[in-house]
Each structure stands twice: as structure tokens, then as C-alpha cells.
Amino acid sequence: MRERKCCTECSRRRRKVKECKPRGPGRKCWTCQKWNRECSFVHDYPPALKGLVFELSREEKRALEQQRRHDAWLAAAGGGGAAGPVPPLQPPGAPSPKRPRVAPRPASHEIAAAAARAALALGPRQAPGGAEAAAEAVPPHYAAEVAILAFAAASAPRAPVPARPPPPPGAPTTSLLISVPDMMCAASCGSAVRGALDALAGTELVGVNIPRKLAHVRTTQDASAILGALRGVGFPGSVVSEAPGDGIEPAAAPVAAEFALADSLGLLVEGCNARTGGPCNCGPSCMCHFCPEHHPERSAKLMEELRRAAAAAPAVAAAVTVSPPAPAAPPLVAPSPPPPPSPKPVPGA
């Protein structure tokens, strides 16, 4: 006998088939202790229990009903009756098909369209009898009160979205990498950190790395203004690195050495395309903090520090000997074709 799951509700596995108790009136499932009608497992009974009568489980009843429908369809098709499409035979454990709704619920775009039609029929918002006109303009299968509420919400005055303040004239651009240890989630913490950095004047690019608890920003503000903005939203941080961002254009292609170094330091995103040798596909909000394509100023500073450290080390500054070129291989000579086989004598010739 095969080992199978005893019940989908508890998702446990039994050690032996014989440990699953026979299911009769008033008995419960061996594993999940639920009544037989709630147990959704189709049991493989031992041969010694085949002659006994047990209460059918929910999945067994469903399988028998599907088989009965299929047999009825075959009988109608063989007798010349008008048989419809073959009803699907669902395997045990498959979810039941969803029942169609009698009155479909309107989607959000349908409610918005109904509210727009109500607004066109209403005309001026202060016109007398506006609510009655809006209710009459809504199709009959929509809820009139829902459309009126949607129209009221759409026509209410909204606060304008504040534009990003312009940078001060003549301020140099700086790329900062900031550690935010209290940043835990992307929905609340990441949005608060990103919003605080976006609200600063002169901000060009903001990125947040939740697993590493890092935030990078390219702005004309100094480090004290950045840290003060983060403290204002309840996320104190510290500057990890700072590099000038003026006069550096994005690279045409990623540099393999820089990406290998950033990958070894754990500063690349798990799903970054640069891990497989392709170009970085993170976009303008790239979270790979030493990406030469989206953050060339930080990448250039990293390579400059590495070159300075290599020049100071005596082992790296040693002369490199160049090996002589290998001699050229002799040209390949095509082998001569084999001689044709001699004809065999024909007997009786």
C-alpha cells in the first residue's frame, strides 16, 4: 500500500495504511480527529476491509457523482438524444467549480463609468435634484447609491500633489549610502524612508534595500540634512559612504570586475540580471549599490580606492613578466582519400 496523506485539513502522513481506522457511523479521522463527512481523503483500504461498509468521504461522493453524470451523458449520446458537452471528471482532491453569481458585482472601473455618466447627466454640481438625476443616469443593474458615492468622491476637491522642490543653484550632487537599522518592511518603513528622502530639495534618485537595511540617495543636500530628514520620520541612520556625483555619465555596459566585487560583498540584489552576465535590469531605482550602470559615481570611487590600495601594496606593485608568444602550430594537411576497392570477380563470367 502507498503512503498517502490522511486528511487535507491536517496535512499529516500516516506510517501504515492499517493505522487508519475504519470509518463507520460516529467515527472520526485517525489523524485530524474530524468527523467522516469532513475528512476529504479517499482512503486506500487494506484488502481485509474491502467487504465492510463504510461511510463515503466527501471526495468519494464527489467522484461518484461525477462518474454518474458522465455515464448519463454517454447514455444520452448513444440513444440519439441531444447531449450537451461532456461534464468534466474531476479527480479526487480537485476544488469544486465556482458557482456563477446571479447578479455580477460591478467592478471599480464600471462604478467609475457609472459615476461619470451620472456626472454628465447632473450637469452643475449645485443643480437642484442632483441626487435624483444621478440615480436615474445609473444603469439598473448597478447600485445607485454606490455610484452616487463614487461620483461624490470623484468630484470632491483633492489636494494637489506637491512637486519636488528645485535644487539650490550651484549645489554639487552627492551620492550617499545610508544605513537605516530600524527599517524592517517595505510597505511602512520603506515607504516612510523613501518619502522623507524624496521630499528633500535637490533629490534626483532614491533607492531602498530592505534586506540590507540600506538607503541610497543622489541629492544636492549634505549628509546632516539627509540624516535629519530620516530622524524626522523616526528612522535614525548613519552614513556608510559618500561620493561626488557630478560629471559622471552612466556606463554603457556593466564592468565584470566591479560586479564580481559587489557580489562577493553581498551588495547585489538576488534577482539582478548582472549575476548571470547580463546588463543590470533594476531600472533607475537600482538597489545594487556599486552598480556601474546606475550608480557610476559610487562604483568609480570604489575602484579608485582599490587602485590606491593596490599601488600601496608591495606585492601588487611588483613587475609582471610577460611570457613569450607560443609558436604557431604547423598547418594541417588533409589526408589523402583511400583507394577505391577492387571489383570482385563475378562467378560464371
TrEMBL record:
Gene Ontology molecular-function annotations: metal ion binding
InterPro entries per record: HMA_dom_sf (IPR036163)
Feature: compositional bias, Pro residues: 85-97
Region (Disordered): 76-109, 324-349
Protein name in the entry: HMA domain-containing protein
